[in-house]
Write a structure and sequence with these properties.
- By secondary structure, the chain is of the alpha+beta class.
- The chain contains 14 helices and twelve strands.
- It has four domains: about 170 residues, no CATH class; about 90 residues, 2-Layer Sandwich (Beta-Lactamase), CATH 3.30.450.20; about 70 residues, Orthogonal Bundle (Helix Hairpins), CATH 1.10.287; about 140 residues, Histidine kinase-like ATPase, C-terminal domain (Heat Shock Protein 90), CATH 3.30.565.
- Helix content is about 55%, strand content about 15%.
- The strands form three sheets. The protein has a five-stranded antiparallel sheet. Strands 7-9-10-12-11 form a five-stranded mixed sheet. Strands 6-8 form a two-stranded antiparallel ribbon.
- The protein is rod-shaped, with a radius of gyration of 47 Å.
């Protein structure tokens, strides 16, 4: 067994200090020749030599035994201390000397360090020593015969001190162990909370009054597109979030508007909570990625649209087919004049356009669930380009440029074909409006920032005016008289159902650039 705990080592140092102090007091007493005036010494020479021996021995013990490895050392120390004090008790003349009180203190401290019967043994040695030496002293000094009651009382006090201090020490030790266990539990909970905080997808920020970031978890850094924010002022890094914070401070009842911290990043919904830390007031910021919620809302919208179109499809297509068939028969009539034939042709053209709108809406509502497969994009694009070129017109040219290796993703190949065909055909059509030869470039590469595969579809057409950019992915929005306004909307929906993203980028030097950012190959299963 060893002396364990900070409490035990502290008591041992106090015990050393106490014994050295008592030894110094005794040496000063005999050095000033006051011992014969203050004490009725029974053996003066023994008392003087014993005082010096007590001081020297305790100084050596205090230096040599600072961290005892075994309780036997502590027991030997306490036993030697009691024996020396009992000897001084005898030399000083018994109970009138007051050294018996020093024995009680020594027994009490020894029982803090020792447990059970061992501590009581020290008390027994002290009590027996005082009573026996009082008896032995009575032979040379008849007056000592009246000290038995005082000696017995001192012995009883030694036992009382031992029992009381052992109980108190046991409670202190239990309290210390409980405090250590609680400290370990608190440290474990703190580490667990820190791990949970860092693994949360919800972004969490703590800002002070100067908008300095006190705490930022990994989710917040990812959503804001930053590597480190702790200790930095948020204003230059995310001014939109600071603007939402200021609006909330002016009117906390208003729900903050969503924001996009980085281009092509996720749509974030901030929320703010005041956080009081002593006299300081911080702001707790939660950042929720609502892109998935938006996607679910769109899915519900598509489901509603599907039920609507399924209900009205037969009601529209049947009369529309009759109108188209009647216009065709009317156009074949020999008695029909030229202007009337032109009117019949207009009826047929608009009937075909209405039928195309219905087909696109039905295709949107009947869209099957994505069945992602692991695709080697480099190989897949070469095959797509070869098939497209084999059926393309003579005035259409498709260019393909790939860079990097290991460009893989998980996506439904049929839906990817539908998306890419729509984008390439749109690019060819708009390129032909400016040039005699319609050209589209496909560029596949790995994004250096996100390490995700990216495919760009570029054309050299007139591009999209800035005032129309925010509407190009809206359903039924089109600038072409013959278009339905559903092509880009369906393409983006198909990409998002495969956890890819379709965005528009103005092309340097004119034209358009539609960028598909694919998901990581391990993201979908």
């Amino acid at each position: 067994m060893t002396l364990e705990g900070v409490h035990g080592r502290r008591v041992l140092r106090l015990y050393h200090l106490y014994r050295v102090t008592v030894g110094l007091a005794l040496v000063l007493l005999i050095s000033s020749d006051l011992d014969e005036n203050l004490l009725n010494l029974a053996h003066a020479e023994l008392f003087r030599n014993g005082s010096w021996a007590y001081l020297i021995i305790n100084i050596l013990i205090a230096v040599l035994i600072q961290r005892p490895r075994h309780l036997l050392q502590v027991f030997s120390l306490a036993l030697a201390d009691v024996i020396l004090l009992v000897a001084l008790f005898y030399a000083a003349g018994g109970t009138p000397s007051g050294i018996g009180n020093l024995l009680i203190v020594s027994v009490a401290i020894a029982n803090i360090l020792l447990r059970g019967r061992v501590g009581l043994l020290i008390a027994a040695v002290a009590a027996i020593g005082m009573i026996y030496l009082t008896f032995y002293l009575s032979f040379s000094r008849p007056a000592a015969a009246g000290q038995y009651v005082q000696a017995g009382a001192l012995g009883a006090l030694c036992f009382a001190a031992a029992i009381f201090l052992q109980g108190l020490s046991r409670r202190l030790q239990q309290s210390e162990q409980l405090a250590e266990q609680r400290a370990v539990d608190v440290a474990s909970l703190e580490a667990l909370n820190a791990l949970i905080l860092q693994r949360m997808r919800t972004g969490i920020l703590v800002l002070d009054k100067q908008h300095r970031v006190v705490l930022a978890n990994q989710g917040a850094l990812t959503l804001l597109g930053r590597n480190e924010l702790t200790g930095k002022v948020l204003d230059p890094h995310c001014p939109e979030l600071v603007r939402r914070l200021q609006q909330w401070l002016h009117n906390p009842t208003l729900r903050p508007q969503s924001l996009q911290a980085v281009p092509d990043g996720a749509l974030l919904q901030p929320s703010f909570i005041p956080l009081h830390r002593g006299e300081e007031t911080h702001t707790l910021v939660f950042l929720e990625d609502i892109s998935q919620i938006t996607q679910q809302a769109q899915q519900l919208k598509l489901a509603s649209l599907g039920r609507l179109t399924a209900g009205i499809a037969h009601e529209i297509r049947n009369p529309l087919g009759a109108i188209s068939h009647a216009a065709q028969l009317l156009q074949e009539s020999e008695i029909l004049e030229g202007p009337d034939r032109r009117l019949a042709q207009i009826i047929q053209d608009h009937s075909r356009r209405m039928n195309l709108v219905i087909e696109n809406v039905l295709q949107l509502s009947r869209r099957r669930q994505a069945e992602p497969q692991l695709l080697d994009l480099k190989y897949w694009l070469h095959r797509f380009a070869s098939e497209f070129r084999s059926s393309a017109a003579l005035d259409q040219t498709l260019h393909l440029e790939t860079s990097g290796s290991g460009l893989q993703t998980r996506m439904d190949p049929h839906q990817l074909t539908q998306v890419l065909t729509n984008l390439v055909q749109n690019g060819m059509r708009y390129s032909a409006q400016v040039h005699q030869l319609g050209q589209v470039w496909l560029k596949l590469f790995r994004d250096p920032d996100s390490d995700l595969p990216v495919l760009e579809v570029l054309d050299d057409g007139p591009g999209i005016p800035p005032e129309q950019l925010q509407h190009i992915f809206e359903p039924f929005y089109t600038t072409d008289n013959k278009g339905t306004g559903l092509g880009l909307y369906i393409s983006r929906e198909l990409c998002e159902s495969n956890q890819a993203r379709l965005d528009y980028k103005p092309r340097e030097g004119g034209g358009s650039c539609f960028r598909i950012t694919f998901a990581h190959s391990r993201k979908l299963s």
